[in-house]
Automatic annotation (TrEMBL), chains A, B:
The keyword Transcription regulation applies. PROSITE patterns: HTH_TETR_2. Keywords: DNA-binding, Transcription, Transcription regulation. This is TetR/AcrR family transcriptional regulator. The lineage of its organism: Bacteria, Bacillati, Cyanobacteriota, Cyanophyceae, Nostocales.
DNA sequence: GTCTATACTAAGATAGAC
DNA sequence: GTCTATCTTAGTATAGAC
C-alpha cells in the first residue's frame, strides 16, 4: 500500500481508513474550534488519540490535513442541506421549507457554522477551499432556487438569478450577523419574521402581474 | 506622561501620538493581510519602521495592539459608509444610492473588506470586537434603513426591521460571496442587477396597497 | 504502522545600553 | 523613549526504536 499524500484516497484498507477517520475526527474538532493557525499538531494528536507521527504518515503536512478535512466537511455540509434535489410544490410552502432547512442545518449545527467561519477566515490562504465551498454549497443553493423561480413564471420574477441571490443571501447574512457576530444579542429578529418577510417579497411580485 | 496600556488614549503628546500612529499604520497592513495568529510582532515592527520594544511601550501586548487597531478601523469604516446621516428623498433613487455607497465603500476598499473578514475570523476569540462591529456598522445600517422604511408607509412594508435586514443583508452576503469567496469567478452577478432586483422588490410591495 | 524522543525554527515578550 | 540583543516557549516536522 502506497503512502497517501493528499486527500485523494484510493481503495485504502479498512485498517488504514479507520485510522484516517480517527485522525480526521480529532482534527475536525480542533481546527473548527481554534482555526488553522492556532491549531497545533500536538493538540490534534492528543484529540485524535494517536501519535503525531501517525498523522504525518497519513497526511503530508498540516496543510494537507486541513485541506482533506475541509473538503470532507464541505461535501457533508452540502449533502446535509440539499437532501432534496428537486424543488416542487406550492411556492408559499416550499420556499418557507427551503429557508427553514438551510437555517436549521447550518445555524443550529456548530460544525457547519464553524466551517463557514473558517472558509471565510482562510479564504486568502486557501482560495481553492473557498472556491470549493462557494461552488458546492452557495452556488448550488442559488442554482436550485434560481431554477425554481425560472420555472414558475406565475411568480413574476424578472431576474431569477438575482432573486435567488437575495433569497439565499439573506439567509447567509442572517446566519453570519445574528449567529456569528452576536447580532441576536443586540436586536432580536426571529427566523420566522425573516422568512415571513422574504415570503411576502416573493409573493408580492406575483400579484403585480395578475 | 503615564504609560498607555490600552487603546484608551487621553491627551497624548504630539510626539507620542505620532509614534502610535506610525505603529498602527504598519500594524494595520500586516494584520489585515495575515490575520491575527499569522501576524508576528517582528513583522509589525519592520513594517512600521520601529523596534519591537517601542511597540510594547505603546501597547500592552499583541492583543492590545490588535484591539486598538480593529476599534479604530471599525470607527473609520462606519464614518466612511454613513457620511450621510439622514435619509430623505424618493425611495427609488435614495435606496439605490444607499446600496451603491455601501458596495463601493466596502467592496472596493481592500482594507474594509479585510476588516470584515478579520472580524468574522476572530469572532470567537474576540467577541467584543465582533459586537462592536455589529453594533457600529451592521446595526446602524439596518437601523437607518428600518427607520426610513417605517417613515414611508406608502412603501407598504409590513415589517421594516426585517426588510432592512433583507436589504442590507443582501449587500453583505454579496460582498462576502462574490468578493471574498470568489463567487464572481463562478457566476457573474453584477451589482446593478442585484440592486435592480432589490429595488423591484421594495417598489412592488408598494404597488399592492394602491 | 505506530510510538517516543528530538532537531530546528519562529514567535511573544523582556533586559539593559544609550 | 527608543534601540539591540536575548530569553523562553511552543510548534512543525523528522529520526529511530519496536
Amino acid at each position: 500500500m502506497r503512502k497517501i499524500p493528499t486527500s485523494q484516497i484510493e481503495n485504502p484498507s479498512p485498517a488504514i481508513a479507520q485510522k484516517q477517520e480517527q485522525i480526521l475526527q480529532g482534527a475536525i474538532r480542533v481546527f473548527l474550534q481554534e482555526g488553522y493557525a492556532r491549531t497545533s499538531m500536538d493538540r490534534v494528536s492528543a484529540e485524535a488519540g494517536v501519535s503525531k507521527q501517525t498523522i504525518y504518515s497519513h497526511f503530508q503536512d498540516k496543510e494537507g490535513l486541513f485541506k482533506a478535512l475541509i473538503e470532507r466537511l464541505t461535501i457533508a455540509c452540502f449533502q446535509s442541506i440539499f437532501c432534496i434535489e428537486k424543488l416542487q410544490g406550492d411556492p408559499a410552502i416550499l420556499l418557507r421549507q427551503v429557508a427553514k432547512i438551510y437555517l436549521t442545518k447550518v445555524a443550529d449545527n456548530p460544525d457547519y457554522l464553524a466551517l463557514l467561519r473558517l472558509i471565510i477566515a482562510e479564504s486568502q490562504n486557501f482560495p481553492e477551499l473557498a472556491k470549493l465551498y462557494t461552488q458546492t454549497v452557495v452556488q448550488r443553493g442559488r442554482q436550485i432556487l434560481s431554477q425554481y423561480f425560472a420555472s414558475h413564471p406565475e411568480l413574476g420574477i424578472s431576474d431569477p438569478e438575482a432573486m435567488a441571490h437575495i433569497f439565499f443571501g439573506s439567509l447567509v447574512s442572517y446566519i453570519i450577523v445574528q449567529e456569528m457576530l452576536y447580532g441576536k444579542e443586540l436586536i432580536s429578529l426571529s427566523r420566522d419574521r425573516l422568512v415571513d418577510s422574504l415570503m411576502n417579497l416573493v409573493i408580492s411580485q406575483s400579484k403585480n402581474i395578475q
